[in-house]
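Margin note from the TA: students keep mixing up input and output lines. Inputs are the sequences; the output is the structure of the whole complex. Example:
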Amino acid sequence: MRSNTSLRNFTGALLLCASAAAVLPGGAAAQSDEPIKPIPTELKLDPKKVALGEKLFNDKRLSRDNTLSCASCHNLSAGGIDGMASSVGIGGAKGPINAPTVFNSALNFRQFWDGRVNSLEEQAAGPIHDPKEMGSSWVEVLSKLSQDAALVAQFKELYPDGLQSKNVQDGISTFERTLVTPNARFDKYLRGDKNAISSDELKGYELFKKYGCVACHQGVAVGGNMFQTFGVMGDYFAQRGNPTAADMGRYNVTKNEADKHVFKVPSLRNVALTAPYFHDGSAKTLNDAVAVMFKYQLGRTASQQDKDQIVMFLRTLTGEYKGQPLDRIQRTAAK
Ligand code: HEC
Ligand code: HEC
């Protein structure tokens, strides 16, 4: 109920902004008034740290049995995910939850579905220690990496105190900050290129705002900036069945009753490439996910055409990585 009320207030505030924008002289409903913002195209990061971080991101020595790197579950040629409902860690250990993409994770206000860590630096230590992911420890990882003279030298050059866990975390997170995907067609539209999206896709965006999806999925990442209950308008979990500990969401962090089934609202950037959806990986297609959102987050029904147009809009959120459209990288990698 609590998040329901705040959501209503929030939507009210959005509507107020929209009407204020409408009375601007010259009818200039400026792009800056849109609830979704384009991803900045410029990054200022130390290229040497980025290169080190990229190496670490792909380094299997970060797992106990040297079988998994970060990239094993966050495949950069496949939307930054593993494509499974829930991840599989070392020794085939089945994890409790769906792997979100690492693309644009730098834009999230917190990391993980339950927001249990605040920064990417802190996040990087998580999978290394998680027995169902990489199952290792800093002692193990640092002892393996310290036998690699070239890597040790690289650390020494970039960090006064050399190879240390905090510098591994810094390198990985610096690399992760490069994993933003600017220049989506929708961003081009926001920057003034009216032909960047079709009339159906634009209609989808209007519906996304009109129905209130934008109350939760907004900002630069089209999400990633607030917590919300999954099942505001109905008990999603009772209908799905087979409750898991992960379903408790933020409650697992705070032990606060009001946080049961509360999750970080995920970013919808590149969402066309990140199936299956939700923390439980239960929605196989974008159409399925949108239908669930209508039912449980909005408590509304919509025509098939409205839902289809919203999906068309969501497909315009696919951006570029290293100057290449993310879906093209995916097609090339699949060959
Ligand atoms: C075994 C598969 C696996 C491996 C290996 C793995 N991850 Fe993840 N990653 C996941 C899963 C599953 C989650 C979601 C966990 C949760 O929310 O509780 C996740 C979450 C994340 C997030 C948070 C994204 C968000 O939107 O909240 C980031 C960032 C991330 N991983 C980066 C990394 C890095 C860096 C490494 C290597 C040090 C790594 N991952 C290794 C499966 C994996
Ligand atoms: C009250 C807030 C709220 C509203 C309104 C809302 N969503 Fe969501 N959305 C969420 C939350 C929270 C999740 C994550 C649920 C989970 O997996 O636990 C989510 C997940 C999603 C996902 C899956 C993303 C992924 O990577 O798994 C899609 C797609 C999505 N929403 C689209 C929409 C659309 C389209 C609308 C409007 C029809 C909408 N949402 C309305 C809060 C909201």
